[in-house]
Amino acid sequence: MEYNPFHNGHLHHLQEAGKKTGADLTVAVMSGPFLQRGEPALVDKWTRAETALKAGIDVVIELPYVFAVQPADRFADGAVSMLEACGVTDICFGSENGEIKPFQDAAESIEQHGQQIDQQVTAHLSAGKSFPRAYNEAVTEAFQGSIGLDTSKPNNILGLEYVKAIRRRKNVIQAHTIKRIGSSFHDQDPSSAAIASATALRKIIFDKHQPFTNVRPYVPDISFQLLHQKKENLTDWEAYFPFLKYNLMTAETEELANIYDCSEGLEHRFKKNIHQTKTFRQFIDAVKAKRYTRTKLQRLAVHTLNRVNKSDITGWSPGKPAPYIRLLGMNTAGQAHLSAMKKTMSMPLITKASAGKHPWFDLDLKASHIADFVQSSDSLKEYQKKPIIID
Amino acid sequence: MEYNPFHNGHLHHLQEAGKKTGADLTVAVMSGPFLQRGEPALVDKWTRAETALKAGIDVVIELPYVFAVQPADRFADGAVSMLEACGVTDICFGSENGEIKPFQDAAESIEQHGQQIDQQVTAHLSAGKSFPRAYNEAVTEAFQGSIGLDTSKPNNILGLEYVKAIRRRKNVIQAHTIKRIGSSFHDQDPSSAAIASATALRKIIFDKHQPFTNVRPYVPDISFQLLHQKKENLTDWEAYFPFLKYNLMTAETEELANIYDCSEGLEHRFKKNIHQTKTFRQFIDAVKAKRYTRTKLQRLAVHTLNRVNKSDITGWSPGKPAPYIRLLGMNTAGQAHLSAMKKTMSMPLITKASAGKHPWFDLDLKASHIADFVQSSDSLKEYQKKPIIID
Q1: Residue B188 forms beta bridges with which residues?
Q2: Is residue A28 exposed (0-12), middle (13-18) or buried (19+ Cβ within 10 Å)?
Q3: What is chain B's mean pLDDT, rounded?
Q4: Which of A379, A380, A382, A383 to mutate against chain B (most B CBs within 10 Å)?
Q5: Is A390 in contact with A54 (CB distance < 8 Å)?
Q6: CB-based contact A206:A281 (threshold 8 Å)
Q7: Cα separation, B276 vs A106, whole angstroms
Q8: A40: β partners
Q9: According to its UniProt record, which protein family does this protein belong to (chains A, B) (predicted)?
Q10: Are strands A174-179 and A27-31 parallel, antiparallel or unpaired?
Q11: What is each CA distance from A113 to A101, A109, A117, A127, in whole angstroms?
């Protein structure tokens, strides 16, 4: 989850998930300060975790940077491995249709026709198609259109990857899906209904011509209260852009070529376009070309901002579990569950920043330092924070 | 010169220099956006050049970064080589006493006792003394106190280096000195007299409790007008500090160790102290130790901000001339002089940024881009600027 911000759709999902699984405990894996689509979070991760806990989730853990700012396969694989380590038995994700069978069918077929699909994706990419389109066409071709799942929709892509990741782990976890309600993921124009996408809500928040209170109908009260408390610290890419620009202005092209996920000479495109652009939006518009998705460019911008190099992110392969679990918060039920789990947990549970020893955790720390510095000029916060505990 | 800002003391110096030399033309070599003591200039170099021209100087050229953000020997050596290339016959510098003979005597004796002085400086530095103090004691010891020049005073240090640089060039240029008037260089409390140091004036400008007009008595009218026009863009280190902090937060220690002039593990001191400091002043106070002068640390901070590596500044030795001259502005007399000189000039005269091909010029450009970005969010300015021409 990203909870950026936590809205009524998230609450609906949580309630439906409870009904569907009869779960007595809920664990959420949440991205840290930088998100899957290559954007910084609106508000710090501690506030987002607190909101989730107060909305009824029992344990919130942080998805490491190495999985969070990544395509769906890696994002889902990391998250599932951490949920498994926490003893989770059921995973619920949102989808357009709310039916699990097409996901299971698609996952099974991809396992069978994987090589054919890979070849077709490569062919479509060479023909200049974007990855989502190339993938959807390749999958459709392989199944001859019989699968009943549009894999070009972001939520379906992610759901499919959850199911694939679960299957890789020998099905010890059961997958469920819940139909998303209200406006679609890409919709930017919230109606008067109480459901608006996170994208639409961020648009309201950063629109100088709209009062902040316009988000109120679309988010639970607790979310509104906490967002309101942090009103002066809410950030989008534009708050980070001066630092990205400074970095691109001062870095050598060879340094940029070393940034994780930098390929095909994008370091030159980035450097060439930085001087003439004054906003992040202008910058991405300037570097955008048909062969790169906006998300790919935004993720590269996040890695560049954080100066994450290729050598910092190595050693991942599908199915390889996350190497640690960073705990952000829990309620008393969550605390009891973790205490019981702790002895047999397959990953170290990190409860304070200074205890994290894995090199990937250093990336989480660096990303949090930068976000805290930009959001609140307090780059030391990460060292002072303890997991949130609520009754 | 640094003209940071151009004040009545500069005007006095200019007038006295005219009387002393009978010069029909004046050339000023001025630092670009970053200054000798490791500070950013208050206002952009074009505004400072324009002020100097309107105050009566005929030609203003830019001292390259490679010479400007350096100890006095290198600063003076670069400046003298450029003045020589411009056909200058007399150089005037300010000093505490206004007598040239002690400078000539000191320079001659240093040539004779150089090795002994170097050894003594090393010994004093090992004993934990700061460089200015070590140098002054070593020089005093070599001359047995008879020289009549306090070489721990910044202006005397610089004057001595001008004289040494001129002697290295076989005395084709004649050295003069003019007694500085009013408060001393380090004084930070301007009296009611019309003379105040540049340091004192910057203190007024960045003091929120003083009106900007308080600087008016101490600067020529034209200087006040131009400063006033740029009122919203005047910057000290604090405006640059967020970028220095971001850089120190994201750079690896090994990258910092590669920064020009980084030695004795200062990369660790810089990195260790950055999180807990919220202002540049706090930062320098935190890293300061007896063995490092504040100026040395500030210069390292400038190189870190500009990401200038050791490999970017190589190949200088005393007496080696600057490789190019960047023209910032001229009046018609200056223009006539340069036209006449141009054919025989020993260095290329750069009149637009895109024409500069030397790797050192790339550093000038990068430094200007950063300063323009921080001062006016316009990092492209340097490519658009042509030399200022006034009647």
Answers
A1: none
A2: buried
A3: 91
A4: A379
A5: yes
A6: no
A7: 51
A8: A34
A9: Belongs to the TmcAL family.
A10: unpaired
A11: 18, 6, 6, 21
Residue A126 backbone phi and psi in degrees, to 5: -60, -30
pLDDT 10s digits, B181-237: 765 433 544 443 488 889 999 999 999 999 999 999 999 999 999 999 999 999 999
**Which is more confidently placed, A130 or A39?**
A39
More reliable by pLDDT, A123 or A377: A123
What does the CA dihedral B100, B102, B106, B112 come to, rounded to 10 degrees? 100
Q: Is B272 within 8 Å of chain A by CB?
A: no
Distance of CA B7 to the CA centre of its chain: 16
Residue A105: per-residue pLDDT:
87
Q: How far from B165 is each of A354, B31, B99, B112, CA to CA, in Å?
A: 53, 18, 18, 15
Q: Give the relative orientation of helices A280-287 and A294-305 as an angle to the nearest 10 degrees.
A: 120
- Convert the pLDDT of each residue in B133-146 to its tens digit: 888 788 778 876 66
Q: Please name the member of B249, B306, B373 whose beta carbon is closest to the beta carbon of A373.
A: B249
Give the ipTM.
0.90
CA closest to A362 among chain B residues: B250
In degrees and rounded to multiples of 5, residue B145 shows phi and psi of 75, 10
Confidence of residue A156 (pLDDT cuts 50, 70, 90): confident
Closest by Cα among A97, A169, A87, A166 to A334 = A87
Backbone angles phi, psi at A287, to 5 degrees: -90, -15
Residue A263 identity: S
